[in-house]
DNA sequence: CTGAAAGCGCTAACAT
DNA sequence: ATGTTAGCGCTTTCAG
């Protein structure tokens, strides 16, 4: 009464296991009648091929690992669903792992994925330095970095134009007459955090507006920091007339703070955020944001990985940069 | 230059592979000195045990499958993170699969999970009848149903009190003096959809309020239906003074409709939703909701599954019902 | 305390 | 067109 194996099927159909294997894998070269008999046996026994055994001999699992730093940030699930859709189409399955921004957790997960012999890895690392990827590189497993680059190793990378997006956002504010523009930055040791600041600075520079230290605050990309820093901005003797928030979660925190402070969005303070958020159209007035093609990011990532996995392509690593888009709603008003 | 195997380690440490296996699995009975030598070899070779090979002989993969119907509904990712945390603690890994409410997709996914020999399955099925689970039952894999029961088979089940929650919500509205209370139902062929309607009806009955057909609308648990049905309600010659929405996504749709219709929340129409939503505190006034212990749901589900997997416990199937909680904010006003 | 050897279920030569 | 057989990397008796 055990799970039926290929041997059970073979016996029942009066053929060898090799022949059964041939029909399971649609390799052809099996007589119609024989095939029919085998198919019938499979049906009768409810036989389901054992993928573990197959992986054992083929040395490939048709499984990829996905590592993201924060499941609670809706950005990542969206990217992941882009990856998964493409993966499923190609017959790949995914292990989705969350590091909570911890480099140690990332290290552990990497080991587990290696043990499980994933065929490839898509990662938004918690530590851009990248030493933790040494084992993966040793194992010669294809890797694609998403949203955050890896310093130590050359790997395929897919990013959005952070500098570009932040520049557009800041310029939008400037063109409306704002001069006292604050930025709530992400961690400056991460690519997105740093680059978005660069875009902000570049726009100010281009329009001859000095960067004021009090208006440049560093958060951690989490909601609470957005809230705290907005309050800090409010305390300033000379309040900014506009705020640029570097990511979605901090934007949510900002909104909560504005509400608590009764600091009137759109009237007393203009606002623009990096990344579109669910709440964007529920606050009043709706938020102008820099939006990223999140699903697309995931789709591109899988496609790059797929090429490496199948073609064993060992060419130069590629950097793919997608363009962000300014979605103008009503949270920015003429100054 | 291939991936090092247990044999490479054995050679290097001058022992047999059996001994290496013993130390990898911490089975003891190996002399200190030998063990040290083996550990050193492992270290030097960067040896990582191959989980596929292990699964092959142990006939267990330490992997469970999770099937959910809709990744875009934030309810499920939250449940999933509850499952995953517990799973990780016990050394289990998860395959997360999304059916998009399609019974066919669910069938396919089930087959894949079976091929991959998952040790257990946690599922919120797209088809409560449950015929598609036949193969899983045949394979004698432990199953836990979450949020939706399975009719055809006895399996461990963890739910929240849908009737209870809907009853509380409706009563809350009634006690504020509302009599014209509309409900936006979920699909009546699903447990949550049906039970929530039952709770609504029971409350009306208990307080002697007749159920008016025009006020009972059936949506599909997706955002757009919430929006459409709210508009339908607005067209009624005698509009309801309160609306009860049966799930989070439809609540979002409702809010959009209210905004578009300029139907004043809290003033012209009171509102209460099943499930807490991110936007609940961003709309004005903030939404009163029935909230469910989502993470807990996942945690309980894994724990039940774990018992079955490890103890091979074959006792009676259990039904675990968690209690919902009314979170009173400000979207319901005295009539 | 350690080793030899028999599989786990399947694929992929190589024969026939 | 089909069968035989040698592994894949590991765990687990069973012997020493």
UniProtKB/TrEMBL annotation, chains A, B:
Domain HTH lacI-type, residue spans: 4-58
GO terms of molecular function: DNA-binding transcription factor activity; transcription cis-regulatory region binding
Organism, as annotated: Brevibacillus thermoruber
Domain of life, per lineage: Bacteria
UniProt xrefs under SUPFAM superfamilies: lambda repressor-like DNA-binding domains (SSF47413), Periplasmic binding protein-like I (SSF53822)
Pfam families (alphabetical): LacI (PF00356), Peripla_BP_1 (PF00532)
InterPro entries from the UniProt entry: HTH_LacI (IPR000843), Lambda_DNA-bd_dom_sf (IPR010982), Peripla_BP/Lac1_sug-bd_dom (IPR001761), Peripla_BP_I (IPR028082)
Keywords, ordered alphabetically: DNA-binding, Repressor, Transcription, Transcription regulation
Identification of the protein by name: LacI family DNA-binding transcriptional regulator
Nucleus as UniProt keyword: no
């Amino acid at each position: 009464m055990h799970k039926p194996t290929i041997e059970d099927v073979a016996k029942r159909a009066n053929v060898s296991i090799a022949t059964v294997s041939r029909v399971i894998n649609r390799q052809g070269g099996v007589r119609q009648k024989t095939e029919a008999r085998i198919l019938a046996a499979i049906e009768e026994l409810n036989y389901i091929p054992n993928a573990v055994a197959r992986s054992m001999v083929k040395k490939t699992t048709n499984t990829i690992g996905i590592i993201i730093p924060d499941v609670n940030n809706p950005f990542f699930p969206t990217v992941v669903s882009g990856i998964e859709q493409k993966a499923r189409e190609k017959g790949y399955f995914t292990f989705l792992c969350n590091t909570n921004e911890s480099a140690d957790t990332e290290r552990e997960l990497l080991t587990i994925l290696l043990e499980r012999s994933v065929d490839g890895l898509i990662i938004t690392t918690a530590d851009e330095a990248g030493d933790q990827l040494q084992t993966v590189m040793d194992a010669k497993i294809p890797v694609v970095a998403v949203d955050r680059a890896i310093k130590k190793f050359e790997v395929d990378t897919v990013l959005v134009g952070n500098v570009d997006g932040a520049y557009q956002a800041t310029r939008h504010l400037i063109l409306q007459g704002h001069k006292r523009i604050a930025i709530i930055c992400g961690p400056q040791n991460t690519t997105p955090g740093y680059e978005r600041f660069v875009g902000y600075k570049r726009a100010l520079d281009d329009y001859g507006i000095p960067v004021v230290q009090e208006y440049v605050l560093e958060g951690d990309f989490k909601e609470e920091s957005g809230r705290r820093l907005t309050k800090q901005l409010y305390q300033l003797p000379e309040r900014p007339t506009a705020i640029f928030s570097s990511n979605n979660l901090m934007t949510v925190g900002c909104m909560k703070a504005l509400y608590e402070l009764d600091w009137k969005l759109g009237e007393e303070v203009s606002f623009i955020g990096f990344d579109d958020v669910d709440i964007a159209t529920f606050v009043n007035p709706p938020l102008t944001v820099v939006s990223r093609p999140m699903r697309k990011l995931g789709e591109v990532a899988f496609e790059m990985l797929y090429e490496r996995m199948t073609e064993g392509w060992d060419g130069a690593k590629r950097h793919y940069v997608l363009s962000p888009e300014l979605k103008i709603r009503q949270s920015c008003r003429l100054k």
